[in-house]
Amino acid sequence: MNADWRRSAAKFYGGAQTPLSPKDECSQKVIIATAFFGVFSISKCSTSAMAYFRITLIRSAIGLPAKSSNVLKALGLRKRMATVFHPVSPDVAGQLMKVKELIAVKEVDQPMTKAEVHMERKPDPGFYVESRAADRLKAANET
């Protein structure tokens, strides 16, 4: 990551730019500043817990330039409402900015499995079973 990018990010958010030296590289974080997604910070070392982007394809890429659809393919998004998880990095943030109108992004602490995402999206059945008739009959016959 070059220094010009960090300077422009700090200038965009009015922060002071501090130079990174090799020995304190792990103690500082790099700020990814985007107007659409907000501010995400990335640690340059893997000692801390890793953050992930939760990316959901909201709008289809039909009729858009091939560049946009290729970015979605690279991210692993094929169908609408599909959700993928990618580690927070400047590379992924750049890809997200290319297709920001088509996706919804959240920053999460850990990725979810496909089954967990499915259960999260599964709607409420609309009713609750308080007791079953067979259970009531069995209880009445026992007494």
Automatic annotation (TrEMBL):
Presence of the UniProt keyword Ribonucleoprotein in the record: yes
GO terms of biological process kind: translation
Any keyword Aminoacyl-tRNA synthetase? Answer: no
**Gene3D superfamilies, A to Z:** Ribosomal protein L30, ferredoxin-like fold domain
Q: Which domain of life is it from?
A: Eukaryota
How is this protein annotated for GO cellular component?
large ribosomal subunit; mitochondrion
Per UniProt, residues of the Large ribosomal subunit protein uL30-like ferredoxin-like fold domain are 53-103
The record's principal subcellular location, in a coarse class, is mitochondrion
Molecular functions per Gene Ontology = structural constituent of ribosome
Q: Which UniProt keywords apply?
A: Mitochondrion, Ribonucleoprotein, Ribosomal protein
Subcellular compartments: Mitochondrion
Q: Which family does it belong to?
A: Belongs to the universal ribosomal protein uL30 family.
Matches recorded under PANTHER family = LARGE RIBOSOMAL SUBUNIT PROTEIN UL30M, MITOCHONDRIAL RIBOSOMAL PROTEIN L30
Q: Identify the NCBIfam families for this entry.
A: rpmD_bact
Q: What does this protein do?
A: Component of the mitochondrial ribosome (mitoribosome), a dedicated translation machinery responsible for the synthesis of mitochondrial genome-encoded proteins, including at least some of the essential transmembrane subunits of the mitochondrial respiratory chain. The mitoribosomes are attached to the mitochondrial inner membrane and translation products are cotranslationally integrated into the membrane.
Q: What is this protein called?
A: Large ribosomal subunit protein uL30m
- What does the organism's lineage look like at the top? Eukaryota, Fungi, Dikarya, Ascomycota, Pezizomycotina
